[in-house]
Structure formats: C-alpha cells, structure tokens
Amino acid sequence: MLRHGDGGQEAKKAGEEVAMAPGQGRPVIGLTAYTEQVRYLAWDVKASLLPSTYIDAIIRSGGVPVLLPPVDGAADAVVGALDGVVLSGGGDVAAAAYGEAAHRANGDVRPARDAFELALLRAALDRDLPMLAVCRGTQLLNVALGGSLTQHLPDVLGHHGHRPQPGVFGPVQVRLAAGSQVAMILGTNAQVLCQHHQALGRVAEDLDVVGWAPDGTVEAVELPGRTFVLGVQWHPEQDPADDRLFAALVAACARR
C-alpha cells in the first residue's frame, strides 16, 4: 500500500455515505473506454474495454460505472444520461489536436477516441458535470482548453522516472498546493503511481496548477469555478487501498 497525506477523510466518508444511503439513487459515472483488438477465450476481436481497477474504484465509492466507448456524434446524448465523468488513461493524444508535429516516441494514438472524448469533455463542462481526469485524461483536458503537451519527458528531464518502462508504474512523491481541492482530499504530500512519458506543456489559462513532481513536472490541475473538475497525471485507480479521489468525485455528483 502506498503512503498518502493526511487529508481526504471527508471524501472517503462521503463516498461511504453515498454507497450506504437507503432509498437514494446512486450517481451514474461515465468512464471513457478503449476500443482495441484483444484476445480472450477463443476470440481475437475488436472490443471496447477498460481496466477493472477503474470500475471497482467507482463501485467501492458508491457510484454506478458505465463504459463510454468512442461513438461519433454522441457526446451530448451521453452526458445527458450521466451524473459525472472519468476521463481514463490510455495512449498518446494526437499531436495534431494541439497543432504540433508528432514526436517519434508517440504511440498508440487513437484519433477517433480523441475526437469523441474532446467532444464529451466539452459537453460535460457545458453542463458542469463533476469530472476526474486521469493521466491521458488530464492531458486531454489541457488540450481541450487550449494547452499543449510535452511529447516526450525524457528529452526534457533526462530520466524515465515517470514511466520506468511500458506497463510499469513508477512511484512519485508529489507536492500538492495547500487549499486546493486535491490537497483537501489527499493532503499536501502524496506518493502516487505514474505511467506516462508525456505531460502538460503549455498549461491552459483556465487551469490552476496544483500539483508537482520533484522534477517540476505538473502532476495535478483544477478548473476553478466548477463543481468538481480535477486532473491528475498519475493513476489513482492502481491503488485499491485508497479510493479518495473517486470517492470525492462520486460525492460531488451526489451533492449536485
């Protein structure tokens, strides 16, 4: 189990209250999903999927998870059926989305997913739906609001600490701004799990940077003036002992 800061008991308790409240509807949380060629049982087919760690975290926090594969033109209809959104991790956002040429290290780009999730994100912001953006989701949030990405961190930092190797999560100690939503949930210091070779470059003007790695990499952002819009560059779904960010999202949906 990872070590965490002192904050966030309110978020955990709020999630438990949502889960246990009798006779109340549980918030419906949309989780963006992958569409990939996969093998399982006797099949080798294209499928819509998402690691169950996300799904389990929402269920433990009192929400009802619904997977959202890319569907062209469906963003407005989708958000109308939801109480909140998780923008999940995944492959690189296409550099064309923020007006740059692609770095040679870019991989697993899915333009259809980018297009759907950008439309979904903007529709959710228009309705002020609570939103938790995870890794790629945080990068997409920044791009949607006019920011850009650092396309390959090792070129800038000289190390691979944020992604020791593909498929391996690296522990990173992050500092969180006192008074921010994320600090009220996790405390001002937290050890987290990262798996990214890209990060926020030019930060969108509307976003507040509220979390940093020791090397200066932006690790958390918030969109002020909204019910709950929080982006983290790490992967909170990978720590089943700590659902505080997911519980805070579900609690924000319940209050709304």
What this model shows, in words?
By secondary structure, the chain is α/β, with parallel strands linked by helices. It has one domain (9-255): Rossmann fold (3-Layer(aba) Sandwich), CATH 3.40.50. The protein has 8 helices and 13 strands. The strands form 3 sheets. It has a 9-stranded mixed sheet with strand order 4-1-5-6-13-12-11-8-9, sandwiched between helices. Strands 2-3 form a two-stranded antiparallel ribbon. A two-stranded antiparallel sheet has the order 7-10. A hairpin with a 6-residue loop joins strand 12 (218-222) and strand 13 (229-232). The protein is globular and about 45 Å long. The model is unreliable at 1-6 and 19-23 (pLDDT under 50).
Give a quick rundown of the structure.
The protein is α/β, with parallel strands linked by helices. Helix content is 29%, strand content 25%. The protein contains 8 helices and 13 strands.
Helices, strands, pairings?
Blueprint: H1 9-20, E1 28-32, E2 34-40, E3 43-49, H2 52-60, E4 64-68, H3 75-79, E5 84-87, H4 111-126, E6 131-134, H5 136-144, E7 149-150, H6 153-157, E8 170-176, H7 181-186, E9 189-194, E10 199-200, E11 208-212, E12 218-222, E13 229-232, H8 244-255
Helix pairs in contact: 1-8
